[in-house]
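TEACHING EXERCISE
Course module: macromolecular assemblies
Task: Read the component lines below, then compare them to the predicted structure of the full complex.
Student: A.B.
Group: 4
Components provided:
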Amino acid sequence: MWCASLVVGSFAKASPQKFPDAMGNVIRSIQTGWVIPVVLIATPLVIAVRRKFDDSHLDSVHGLLDQICDATFKNERFLHEQHRRVTLFRHQYFFFGKLHFWGGYLVPVERSGESTRKTDTVFAAPDNGEACQGVAGMTWSRRRNVSIDSLPDLSVDNSEAAQQRYATMSFYPIERIKKKAPRPLSLFGIPVEVGGKKWGVIVIDSAHQKINARAVKQVFDNIAPTLSSYLKGK
Amino acid sequence: MAESDWIPLNREIIAPSAPADGAAWAVEMPSPYDVPSHVRSSYCHSTGVVRIDFRYIEAEKLVLLKLGRYGHAMVGKSSRRIWKIDFNIHQFHRDRKQMAAAVDESIESLPHSEAPNRAITLNALRDKSEALFAVAQ
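Instructor-supplied answer key:
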């Protein structure tokens, strides 16, 4: 787009007679046709759209989430990497996936580690705090850190009572639990702000019964300014 | 102008964890953005104004608010967090107890007094009042 803009700008005032016939015709068509207005309108639009949807900043954010994960679960052993994760959710008023449309949603944008990074778990987070789902929704609604330990282990007991208890304790929708039993036994939500305004939340989940809150707070205090600077304007 | 060093604040004292309302199994802690990490004070002998500054993890735009009868405060434009308090202490004859009581009253008089940051800054001032008001002695 920059090249097209440069070429059009260079030829906008050039005299076609000074160039060979073929080139002169191109310059004439640029000067008389729609090329100049189209390029003038399209260039800033394309730049703005690319800037808005550019997700290169997420590579840096991924490193920060890994840092939170390492500091939180230092000296803890897990069978699989997905048994301890840190996920960054962004709040959006509109979401076009899976029949959701508007009302406020927390959409995952990045996750720590190398495996199970792709997730389509979206939580409702509308203005009405009572309708917020999951620890992500509660953290968003209350604008506070929320920590939940010792959730029922549904891999051991997947009875309806256990599912109901899991749903109540984790604020996770029961219909999703019935479809696929969630693995985390402890959860920790942290609100994320940029420039003093709510931006999204970070959710830490673990297959162990408890998450070290002190370690989370310590590492988050260190990385929060850097995180905000990468999320600014996104 | 007398100025104290930045005094580190203990999060567990000024912003303790508590069970969530209506969900006793969940533990809530104030947002890390609401909890100042450090506080300091300075005193201008010519004007008699004590300034108290709080340091948070992220900078933001500030607005000026009138602070009860005694001075004014700079608060975050969106978050309403207290960043600075300018406080005229001439009338208190350097009595720390009176100064601390006046700070309490002033912060409680600010709009959005229910914001979690209000209680946290009050706790911080109560916890460190001796060191903060020592600059005015």
